[in-house]
C-alpha cells in the first residue's frame, strides 16, 4: 500500500536547465573569476606558497561543509526560486530566512559590482587612457541586458567563456618565469605585505560561487539532483585549480612582483593575451551569473512578502521563463551605485562578511534539522549534524578573525532585519524548525523539572475560567497583571452547546488567541464542551496540563445567580480537594478605567491564606498597571494590648519578606469584622480577603461573604489549596 503523504523532493521540469548548464557552469565560472586573475598573485605575494595553500584549503573547507548542508536541504525539499534564501526560510522560518535572504541579495548584487570593477581594472591595465568607472558601468549594462533576455541564452554564452578560461589556464601552465626567484614560503616581508586574515578576506569571495548555482534553483530541471552534483563538482574543480596556481606563481615571480602587478599572469603565460581573454570572460561571466542570481533572490523575497509593500512588484516574473526583469533593473541601479562609490579591495571584504553570514546560517539550518530529527526531514543526501555545525563554527570564526568590528556590524544588520520582519507578523503557510527547537527544549526541561515543587521558584500557573473572554475581560486582564509573561496562563471556556464539532472548537480557540494577541496578552487557550459549566470545569482541572506544569491556581468570576450557588460552591470544594489554589475575582464592570493606587490586604496570619495573598499582592505590584499602588496589610485586634503583642512580629515579618508594604492595626472594640471591613476598605481600589476551607455549610458561608463585602468595589477572595509552604516563597 503506497504512502499518500510521501514527499516529492523535486518535480522534473523538462524545459529547465541541466546540472552542467544550470549549476556547474555558473558556479565554476564564478569561482574561477576576477579574484583568480587579478588578486591571486597578490595573495601569493603577501602570504607565500604555504600561506596561499592554507587560505585556499581553509576557505574551500568552509564552502565544502556548506555544500554538504546545502545538499542535505536541497534533497529534502522542493527547492523553488530563491535558492539559499528559500531553503533557510522554509527551515528556520520567514524571519531568519528573510534576514539572511536580504544579506544574500546584497552579497550577490555587490558581487556584480566587484566583477565589473575587476573587468574594468584589467581593461585599463591594457588601455590606460580609458576611464575605469565608465567601463565598469558599461559592463553592468551589458550583463544586465543579457540577463533580461533569457536564462538559457545566458547559459549558452557561459560555455564559450568556460572554454576561454580553460585556454588561459593552459597558457599559464606552459608559461615561463619572468625573473629569477626562489619559492617564497611565507611571502613578502612584513613591511611590504598585509596580515593573513586581510588576505583571506580578499580571497574568500573567490570560492563563493556555489550561491550562483543554488540561486538558479527555479530554472533547473531537477533542483534536488542538480544542486548537490553541480555544486560538489564546481567546489572540487575550483580547489584543484587554486592549489596548483600558487605553485606556478611562486616559482615564476618573486613576492614583490606578485603583490605590485595585478596582471602578473599575463607576463608569465605562454600566450599573454589568452590571460586577457580569460580575465574578461571570467569577470563578465561571473558578473552575468550574479546578475541572474541576485534578482531571483529579490523576486523570492518580494513574493513571500518580506520586502516592503512598495517593492511588491519586484516579485513579478516575465515570459515563459518567469524572468525577474523588475528585480534585474533594481539590481542594475544598485550595482552601478556601488561601482561609482567603491573599488575592488573595499567591495571584496564586505562581500566576505555577507557570504559568511549566509553560509553560517545555512549550516545552522541543516545542523538543527538533523539534531531535531523531525519526521518531515528526510534528505536523500545525509550529512551528520556535526559537519554542518562545524561549517557554521568555521564561518563565525573566520568572520571574527577577519574583522571583529565588521562581524559585529554584520550581526547587528542581520538581527535588525530579523526583528523588523518579526514585528510585522508575516503570514506564512510553511513551518520552521523554531517550533521543533522549542518542543525539544520543553521536553528536556519537563523531564528535569520532575514533580517536586520548589517554593523558591514557585509561580502561579493560572487556569482562567473566563467563559466568553469579551464578557469577562476583567478576569483575563487581572490574571495577566499577575503573570507578566513570567508564568503560564490558560484562558479556558466551557461550551454547553450540544454536538459541537471539533473543527468548530479549533476555530473558536484560534479566534480567541487572535483576540488576546491584539490586546497584548499571550496566553494558552482551551475551549471544551460539557453538559454544564461546573462539570466541564472539574473535568478540565483533572485533565488539563503537562507534568509539573499543570495549572496550580484557578481564577473564577463571582456567580451572580443565587440558584447556582450550590454547584458553584461544590466546584470550589472540588478544586480545593484537587490541591489547587483558588482566586475569585469580584470586580466592577469598568474595572480597567478605575484608579489603581491603593491595595488593602486583610491579614489573619501566615498560615492558611495569608502568605499566598502577600505573594499575589507582591506580584501585582510588579505589573505596569499596579506599579504605583500602595499595599497596606490590615489586621483586626481586640484591644491595645493585643496590638502591642502582635505589632513587633508583623514588623519583623514585613522586613524579612523584603516588602515595601505598610501595615495598620484596627482595634475592634464593639464592632464586628464586616463593619470594620466596609469602613476601612471603602476607598481601596482592590481588596484581598481569605476564604475559609470548604465544608458542608459552604453555601451559607459564601452568601454571607457576598453580603458582607457588597460595599467594596473590587475584591479578590483567595483560598490556598496547593501542597506547598508559601511562607518559604516569602522568606
TrEMBL record:
Source organism of the structure: Salegentibacter mishustinae
- Molecular function terms, GO-annotated: chloride:monoatomic cation symporter activity
**Sorted alphabetically, which keywords does the UniProt record give?**
Membrane, Transmembrane, Transmembrane helix
Q: What is the recorded name of this protein? A: Na-K-Cl cotransporter
Q: Which InterPro entries match?
A: AA-permease/SLC12A_dom (IPR004841), SLC12_C (IPR018491), SLC12A_fam (IPR004842)
Q: Which residues cross the membrane?
A: 20-38, 50-73, 94-114, 134-151, 158-176, 196-218, 230-248, 268-288, 323-341, 347-368, 389-421
GO CC field: membrane
Q: Which residues form the Amino acid permease/ SLC12A domain?
A: 23-430
Note the Pfam families from the entry: AA_permease, SLC12
Q: Which domain of life is it from?
A: Bacteria
Q: How does it sit in the membrane?
A: Multi-pass membrane protein
- Cite the SLC12A transporter C-terminal domain residue spans from the record: 473-589
Record's subcellular location = Membrane
Please give the chief subcellular localization of this protein.
membrane
Lineage of producing organism: Bacteria, Pseudomonadati, Bacteroidota, Flavobacteriia, Flavobacteriales
